[in-house]
Write a structure and sequence with these properties.
The complex is a heterohexamer, with 3 copies of chain A (124 residues) and 3 copies of chain B (375 residues). With 124 residues, chain A is mostly helical. Chain A has helices at 18-50, 53-84, 103-114; strands at 12-13, 16-17. Helices cover 72% and strands 0% of the residues of chain B. The chains are: A mainly alpha (124), B mainly alpha (375). The complex binds sodium ion (NA) (3 copies). One sodium ion binds at residues 114, 143-145, 323-324, 357-358, 360-361 of chain E.
């Protein structure tokens, strides 16, 4: 770069029109963000279409009772461990951050485990 | 520099329908992770990586993991050079408690039995026409251990690394789907109800000495397992020595997290449809599935075999946990046991064959590597 | 090996007054960070780096970032190869909440309008005689995003990386000084008092789907933005998916901190006065300042333009937040609004154009890179 | 790889018998884990042999009184620091994770330090 | 591929008795760390590394730190290129509080006096026939600072890096064994009972300005110390500036932990008996021990010399803390003082010569490097 | 290195006198630390000179009232957010370590923000 090269001729080099390019670039930036804005506007409507409301109210009760059973199982597991694994610091997963290991934490995980629904059908 | 050249430089112009298929696969991975909680720490990074990897890059620009000098290629180096898997093993070692295994050494053998999947798949792959190196790398999918599979592939058959890694992680995530039917098929209700005696307490000393001796045993038998198991047992020593708690803590938190992010993402991004969607890949997926089935079966049947000789019977469900896939296969065992008899708690017992399976797979990888790598 | 040779090997013997100027600049950076709290996470590392980089190194010894084999040169590699910026974007993604943007998509356009600064500066730089590649790298200073500026410079004009990075970060730190006068100039008191309606609540699902779709839109339009935006949205997915909380946590803490330390320090250390203090650098600083002014103005005026068509008016101060400089420009908007009317809370609303501005700059960088990188 | 090469002949290439190799590989995996299992079984017995029980009961009392003295010294140090170093945030080690620095933490460290037994004999 | 070739590929076949000796050394390191709490953060990683490094690798397979392309060789790169030590200094800087030093500057000179060990050992090594570069690297063992020793060895005499690093860390761990007899030998009971006045409080401003000015002084006198001290004082500025707390926190936790793990392990793994157990190594250990003794003596005697001129006497035990070995030698001083007089608290006072010793060693390393590196 | 090369002649190689070099090296180490010690001794006196005492007492009152206003503004912002952003987990900065996000934290940040004095003069 040197100032001797300063001038408008720099903006229109062979095969490269800087002004036209800048307009197009600005257009792409606007275009991209505009499409995102449109998508964001439409998404909630789309989501409302795909998930009919009544389902959610219907699902509450069975899931709750399901959850209750699982919580009971989890508590049972936790107590069992507390009684039979006096060490108490077995790690069975690496999902938690930090280093707390109590039977209750294990219980929480058990609960999470159950909610995986365990492969759909054999377990009935 | 007109509109056309802009369009030609865009991703839209080069997007093929096979890229769209792969992007859909990536979305499904993320969906499974979010809604089913299947191995989310792996499926989310891999899934997003698959999406990124299937955006058509611009010719001549360093964008993809395969383009020299691209940022993604630098991240992918840790996969190609086999650096990430041992670091993940370091973190796993620093979070693994070997107590149950130490208190019930019989269960270790279940972790050995499940490795039969590795060698049968190796033979199957050879039969189908893969080279011995490729066959070894495919076989290790049956080890059900992502880092081990990636490590061995990078050493023996880097050209298959993508499909092997994706197959290994997919099936690990699908353990709760794949294993239960096999477990029901090969066990009776009575067997599934067998209770295990609570394990004895393990002394601090035993826990500190264990990683050192276990490393020496494994590394002297199969030096090829030195890299993975050296790091695994090093991490475990950091944890058990009690005097290096802060190092163990970093190894099992920041360090393993950083490596998991980079490994998952870049493995995912290496699955460009144009090179990934081949007959070979599909074959690898089929072989991988077979490998998982064989390994699970092997573990269960070996437990039943041991029961012929043992007074205190082993619950044969524990055999299924021998495939590794820590800790998911142990969880599946626990849940099946619990459904059968709500007072049958197998989780801790299943951790023994589960971690033994990790060691077993690493030994198998070492054996395959040393025999085939210097072939 | 006498006293003279000792003296000749010391830094004192080779210290020039231009080094002292740069050391003073480094001290000022640290002073501003400590006393004014201007972007301390960047100014402290850069400031100390500038001091270190202006100690005259011994000839023939690997000391400076430019000396082959020196430790600092290895740290600087992450800057030169463009590796640090995407990792910082990963962390930023893992700490960014896109809710306000999702709840008020109109405000996104303000983040687009502010990018006019990028392209006008590009043209200005060309006019002044910089090469197209250099002009593109200088233009992106107007994006008000340090990592983006470093990334694009390293790809298009590595010879200008030092001044461009320092200019970008300096102006980002000076946002509370640069923006207010422009904001007062182009808005009336009545406009500054416009209240924004509280945004609607955004569902978990929308937040999880957003990073995936937004990435696809941006990357297909401008594949050159894939590296930065891939990481940004990957980090955000780690955060929003809820099942990878530990990875998001590491990405936005240890990982981004480590990279910030290394990037800031080595960028600072690359400013040896002998190569840094040139007419070119001064020109770049002037262009950068102009770029910030144009970008701020562009955002504000576009907001006023939108108000001509909207029933529910936008507070045009929000336009100033479109330049990025997250979160400082949003804070400035909030404070100006608050001073005008103590019940006018703009902070959360300003976050929408603020993060949109980050995306906009990355798209602009992608467009510039793909057009000029393969020129 | 191509399917034309499929077949049993692949299993027995010159110098490489895949079936034999697999059997040996499987044997090594079993062997390694078996030795580990044996070692684990024997270790507790070995440890019991090497550390005779009476020692542990004998050692309790002196160690306790030792510990008491050390705790007292540690508390004294802590109080001293609290009084004389109003800053209170001197770090004297980098062993702790996290950033808590109270005189009591220092006291804990002092205690740990004493328990090093300080090189056996000069100290009395 | 028969049993014999399996055996030949195993580690057992190639294990020599000298490997067993080294494995025993590794076990002893771990034993000392666990039972005596001697520098466990270093001895555990090094000890396990020594064990791993002495498993005979398979010929032609990338396993050891010296094998091109092995994972361990990539980890070892950070040692060979001198990258880890400055990063450790960054973390140490971020955890060091220089207040006591700032409140009692006289004590700094004790940290200088102890460096006499460095130069006497340098002369001794030259006398024994080592090259000047090797002698310089051996001398720095007397600096009692592991990272400094590794850094200088990697620059001046990489062929001796293993023994020098092991010697430095061993003696640092053995400080509670080595120093007390010397301290009793050269001090009277009355001297050991000298109480130190409580230091004055140091202002925030002093603490922030200190790292900048101290860096400038050291780097201008000995630019060769720029890399280590730049990072040390940078870390300290991150800590003291108060506005970059999160960076300081990461530097002194995750970052230093990760580097410590990788450095310790790979330094340990570089001690293959076949190349490590030589007459040279034994000589280095002897010289290192002498160096520690001289350094301790130097510090103590200089304190006594200062007392001839000072009205307010210094407890000469503090001189022993001048060797560095932070914070162990300060602890030893504290304990000896406490045993002599249960109301004599020297710990905080000992930290002043202790950290001054770190700076002194780094300057000495810089001087040796610049004189011998360009020889 | 070999022992045959042992001897005093090693200390005085052509162009390199080891003893002289060592003395100079030791001198540099002493010199560097001495200058630091001198600087440390002088700094507090220098700081006392540059910052005249009366200023600090004068500044207290206005700053306090300033601070009060800012605290009130910050609390107002916090309450506003608590009421209008039920999500409550917007992150507006990445300065904090850890992951706590309450309106009160935001309030703390607002406060910090105000104390930047917001570019000196346009604001009134
Ligand atoms: Na396995
Ligand atoms: Na921007
Ligand atoms: Na020292």
């Amino acid at each position: 770069m040197s100032f001797t090269q300063m001038g408008l001729q720099n903006l229109n080099q062979p095969g490269f029109d800087a002004v036209q390019f800048s307009l197009m670039g600005m257009g792409l930036v606007f275009g991209g963000l505009l499409i995102i804005a449109l998508y964001i506007t439409l998404l909630p409507k789309l989501l409302r279409l795909t998930s009919p409301k009544p389902v959610s109210t219907k699902a509450v009760t069975p899931q709750n009772s399901d959850q209750e059973v699982e919580i009971l199982l989890a508590i049972a597991t936790a107590l069992h461990m507390h009684n039979n694994f006096p060490d108490g610091d077995e790690r069975i997963t690496w999902k938690s951050h930090g280093d707390m290991d109590s039977p209750w934490l294990v219980s929480g995980r058990m609960n999470g485990l159950n909610s995986r629904k365990l492969a759909n059908s054999w377990s009935r | 520099m007109d509109l056309l050249s802009f369009y030609n430089n865009s991703g839209l112009a080069h997007l093929e329908w096979i890229n769209l298929i792969m992007i859909a696969v990536g979305v499904i991975f993320i969906y499974l992770a979010v809604t089913k909680d299947y191995e989310p720490l792996l499926l989310v990074p891999i899934g997003f990586g698959v999406i990124v990897g299937n955006i058509p890059p611009i010719e001549g620009m360093p964008l993809s993991v395969y383009a020299e000098g691209s940022v993604f290629s630098y991240i992918y180096l840790g996969v190609m050079k086999g650096i990430y898997p041992p670091l993940i093993f370091l973190g796993i070692g620093a979070m693994t408690d070997f107590s149950t295994m130490l208190s019930n050494p019989k269960l270790i053998l279940l972790g050995a039995a499940a490795q039969v999947g590795v060698f049968l798949t190796f033979i199957g792959s050879l039969f189908l026409g893969f080279t011995p190196q490729q066959a070894g790398a495919i076989g290790i999918i049956g080890g059900a251990d992502g880092p081990t599979a990636i490590f061995l592939s990078s050493m023996l058959a880097p050209e298959l690394l993508g499909p092997i890694a994706i197959a290994a992680y997919s099936y690990m995530a699908l353990v709760p789907v794949i294993q239960p039917p096999i477990m029901y098929l090969f066990t009776t209700k009575k067997e599934r109800c067998i209770h295990m005696a609570p394990p004895r307490q393990v002394s601090k000393k035993e826990k500190i000495i264990f990683p050192i001796v276990a490393f020496l045993i494994c590394a002297l038998i199969a030096p090829g397992s030195m890299t993975l198991l050296g790091m695994l047992f090093f991490g475990n020593l950091l944890k058990e020595s009690m005097v290096t708690e802060r190092l163990a803590n970093t190894a099992r938190n920041s360090l393993i997290d950083i490596v998991t992010i980079l490994l998952g993402f870049s493995v995912g991004a290496s699955t460009q449809a144009q090179t990934f969607l081949t007959g070979q890949s599909i074959l690898i997926f089929v072989l991988g599935a077979a490998s998982f089935v064989v390994a699970t079966t092997g573990g269960i049947l070996f437990a039943k075999l041991m029961n012929l000789f043992l007074k205190e019977k082993i619950n044969p469900l524990l055999g299924a946990a021998g495939v590794s896939a820590v800790p998911d296969s142990a969880r599946v065992v626990h849940m099946i046991g619990l459904k059968e008899d709500p007072s049958n708690f197998l989780l801790m017992h299943a951790m023994a064959p589960n971690v033994a399976g990790v060691i077993g797979s690493a030994i198998a990888a070492g054996v395959l590597w040393s025999a085939l790598g210097t072939f």
